[in-house]
Design goal:
The structure is a homodimer.
Chain A (H helix, E strand, L loop, with lengths): L5 H10 L7 H12 L2 H18 L1 E2 L6 E2 L13 E8 L2 H9 L5 E5 L18 H4 L7 E5 L4 H14 L6 E3 L15 H9 L3
Parallel strand pairs in A: 3-4, 3-5, 5-6
Antiparallel strand pairs in A: 1-2
Helix pairs in contact in A: 1-2
Chain lengths: ~200, ~200
């Protein structure tokens, strides 16, 4: 009654740790790949290695990208006076997919949380304050949660001395909703109606 | 409005081709991995390469395994006089997980289908007929579909001259159901009640 042996079980165990893949779907995926290892497994392994080697955080905004500074920070067509502050890279990517923002980003790396012991020193706040020169608006695209609101209040306080207008996404983001699972239309509308 | 660039998009595209992973979940998985490439991506890449290099079809039964003959064919504790014929490796693994069978297997590699142009010469039938010596029962664990029934009839005809009893899984497998998504209890019960 032995199950398939080590390399396969090991691979299934690793794959089933990914979000969205349970043990059953990981097994199906592995089996599908094993039917054609040369065309399905080797390219995926190479792509993983290539991404792991190439991708690093942007030293300006914190985006994950194959170049540093990232392709957004170096894009001459983007509005460099608009900085959109996001919790993480997932939210940055979601806003990009929604084509909601044509300026720059700043990845905080989290939100303030007394419960989880996350303080301002754990977030990328000082690097944000150092980027303000020339900015005409800071957009706080933070989640509509207690932590998101607390973080937005805190950042608004820290940004006030600069005199730069600080806006937030419009109501329209569902309460408790995470930005990166919103549909693109809602996200784009909330972005445009920011106040 | 550019999206994250090549290595990441390439990896997402490859991952989203796996069964059970859409583009959105592939993106989430990649992002999760990119947070810790050394501990999450490199081991997965290595596991994929190791499995691709190690795993091959068993030259006796057709199972996919890191050794040839496979660990089932070489297991001295298994009943070598019982051969269970399955459509594919997914079904073999499902029966193993259900602990339904302690004999050997034979992977056909498909089922007969006039529609899909699959004939007996496309399946592992001749290798099965060559394995019959010493067998006391051949169990046809084929899907409860038209193709499965056609294939079972065909195999029963081909096996008749050997005089070896041929059994099928009991009714209890839902009509149109694929073996590898059945719950283990149903699968084990149908196996025991084979006729």
């Amino acid at each position: 009654m032995s199950l398939p042996n080590d390399p396969v079980e090991h691979l299934i165990a690793l794959l089933s740790k990914l979000p969205g893949l349970g043990r059953r779907s990981a097994r199906r995926a592995v089996l599908r790949m094993l039917m054609a290892p040369e065309t399905r497994m080797t390219p995926l392994a190479d792509a993983l290695k290539a991404a792991a080697a190439a991708v690093k955080p942007c030293s300006i905004c914190g985006n994950l990208d194959a170049s540093d500074p990232c392709h957004i920070c170096t894009d001459p067509d983007r509005d460099r006076e608009l900085i959109c502050v996001v919790e993480g890279v997932a939210e940055l990517w979601a806003l990009e997919r929604a084509h909601a923002h044509d300026g720059l980003y700043h990845v905080l790396g989290g939100t303030l949380s007394a419960m989880a012991g996350v303080g301002p020193e754990d977030l990328s706040v000082t690097p944000l304050l150092r980027r303000l020169e020339g900015a005409r608006e800071i957009i706080l695209a933070l989640p509509a949660t207690v932590e998101g609101a607390t973080t937005a209040h805190y950042l608004a306080d820290r940004l006030r001395p600069s005199g730069i207008p600080v806006t937030r996404l419009a109501q329209g983001v569902p309460m408790g909703g995470a930005l990166d699972v919103l549909d693109d239309g809602t996200l784009a509308a909330a972005f445009k109606a920011r106040r």
